[in-house]
Amino acid sequence: KSFSRQLDQLSRLGSSSLTNIPEEVREHVKLLLNVTPAVRPDADQMTKIPFFDDVGAVTLQYFDTLFQRDNLQKSQFFKGLPKVLPKLPKRVIVQRILPCLTSEFVNPDMVPFVLPNVLLIAEECTKEEYVKLILPELGPVFKQQEPIQILLIFLQKMDLLLTKTPPDEIKNSVLPMVYRALEAPSIQIQELCLNIIPTFANLIDYPSMKNALIPRIKNACLQTSSLAVRVNSLVCLGKILEYLDKWFVLDDILPFLQQIPSKEPAVLMGILGN
């Protein structure tokens, strides 16, 4: 009797009973629930429903086959992912996509393509979610020095890292990365770092600023053979003076300016600017 009643209910199933199911697939679900087996669509027919051509669904399907792809295919996919992420529910991003992305961190060649997506997800996470789900995965990546694009990506997102990372981890992981950038053999990296430091200097604790950051900026200025790095070092110092106490400037910065060996016009302008 109960079985017959349920069959009767299925045969009279209306759209109002399927309000929790996306409208585009309700009719197909009704067919799946049909009491006549021949009427029910098979798995192949279901995959051809336009609903499953949705960019989010296609993206998730691609992630399921990621292990079959070569580095070139993966890199192209990851490049386009930032346009797709905003269209997906946060729960799907955090539970399905984030683990797939961070699993690629073991492949150094893929990190420059994966990292921007992970940091994009981090921007939408709460501080607690970031600390629990993302920061542990970033730890080893902070220490990677090759490919060089990894450091560039992190430097461009320093405001995010310094805002959401706990103070201890900033001191142990994030700031050492900035220090390595200032000491890097690449002039491009040094210049970018010097240009970006003033944008997040207000987020750096004073002891780290005074005892670790400033000495490295001074060394970069004195030891470089690049005029651009020397000038940018002086400009950088000029922009962060407001975060230094007066006596430190008098005792440390002013004597340092007198040690600068070159006297090119741009350098002199930088010295006078300080």
TrEMBL record:
Protein name: SCY1-like protein 2
Transmembrane parts of this sequence: none
PANTHER family, per database record: SCY1-LIKE PROTEIN 2 (PTHR12984:SF6), SCY1-RELATED S/T PROTEIN KINASE-LIKE (PTHR12984)
InterPro entries named in the record: ARM-like, ARM-type_fold, CIK-Related_Protein
Species of the source: Nannospalax galili
